[in-house]
Amino acid sequence: MADKANTSTSYLNNLSAYASSLSVEAKERYSVKLLYNTGTKSLPDPYAIAEKWSSDPSTWPDLTFGDIYLYLIDTPSIYTKESMKAYKSLEAYK
Length: 94
Fold this sequence. Notes:
mainly alpha, 52% helix
């Protein structure tokens, strides 16, 4: 547990504007939640990534219609091509 506290304390300096505005206790909880691999590594702050993406579109990932289609439609899930085409049978459509 001491290792996690040391890692999270050193990580407090690299937080987003949102996370930096939190109280000290909340910052520590926030940074501990970003730890993985038994506290030896830390995920990047998701709010910091969002801030960077919103301010610099060149850092956004390249997405095409095909990528979105494959993810939403062809990825195994409860929704299939046939179920998506059957929207006319829904009550909301009527």
